[in-house]
Design goal:
alpha+beta
Length: 290
């Protein structure tokens, strides 16, 4: 048939010419193997590196793949590429293989590739190649099971220009520039101004090459801004809250600047105290002269 299968068949030989009407029975087991192996990923591997997987990770994990074939494998090899650099993995050192038979007589090979092979940052691609007794050569990529993922442990960088912590600006509005970069892929950016959060998607950030321009409006009070950036692997960076005063009103600037306000009032009190002390001294001198 057109389907790979394992058959158990009985062939009867009937020798009618024998006067004793003797018969013989022989059982032959054979397989039809036209298409080689089939590859399946376990649930965690599928979630990371499968067709609909998350693709990015910041935590190493075991990769588990099952190869199923009608026949016994005569040769197998696993290679791993990181950022294009190819390495052939060593059985029982870099990975383990567990072979078994199914109830239907098929051969299964479970490959477990420990997470210690994926500690360095980069793009990983795994290739499993095998040859069976029917001389079929198979690999996971040609069978539609490409195993590829990115290991990323580096958090995004956040640079803010246009504002300083504690800065005061005599303006109606002010332009703020955010430069947010990641070594692989930004997921989202959240900007919190005065308690109101605006979230920007990966595409919005990418369309601006990571450089976002915002406008802060003036207010008769101190304002705050903080920024959080998350990448596709789950790494997060935070720009701590910055406090700033943005208003064209000089009196507001004066009264909102506590340090300046205190310094001025301290000076006034010192002048008043000095004047009062001088007044008392002069008064004592006048009384003494009398």
């Amino acid at each position: 048939t057109d389907t790979e299968s394992r058959y158990r068949s009985s062939i009867w030989g009937i020798y009618a010419k024998s006067s004793a009407r003797n018969t013989s029975h022989e059982e032959i087991q054979f397989s039809v193997n036209r298409f080689g192996s089939v590859y399946t990923l376990d649930a965690r591997t599928e979630l990371l590196a499968g067709a609909g997987g998350v693709y990015y990770t910041n935590t190493e994990q075991d990769i588990v793949v099952t190869e199923t074939n009608v026949d016994t494998l005569e040769f197998l090899e696993i290679s791993c590429s990181r950022n294009g650099k190819l390495l052939t993995l060593r059985q029982d050192e870099d990975y383990e293989v567990q072979a078994s038979d199914t109830d239907a007589g098929w051969k299964q090979y479970v490959y477990r590739i420990p997470g210690r092979n994926f500690t360095e940052e980069g793009t990983y691609v795994l290739m499993i190649y095998s040859e069976d007794r029917a001389e079929n050569a198979s690999d996971n990529q040609t069978k539609g099971k490409k195993i590829e993922f990115v290991m990323d442990r580096t958090a995004p960088s956040i640079l803010l220009s246009g504002l300083e912590d504690g800065g005061q600006y005599r303006e109606n509005s002010r332009e703020i520039t955010l430069d947010i970069q990641d070594n692989v892929q930004i997921s989202e950016v959240a900007v919190k101004i005065n308690g109101t959060v605006s979230v920007y998607s990966a595409s919005e950030v990418q369309n601006q090459d990571g450089r976002m321009t915002l406008t802060a409006e003036g207010a008769n009070q101190w304002q705050t801004i903080s920024v959080t950036a998350l990448d596709a692997a789950g790494n997060q960076s935070e720009l701590e809250e910055i406090k700033f005063l943005l208003t064209p009103d000089l009196l507001v600037q004066f009264f909102m600047d506590r340090s300046l306000f205190l310094r001025i009032w301290t000076g006034v009190l010192l002048v008043w105290a000095g004047a009062w002390a001088l007044f008392l001294r002069q008064k004592r001198l006048l009384l003494f002269k009398r």
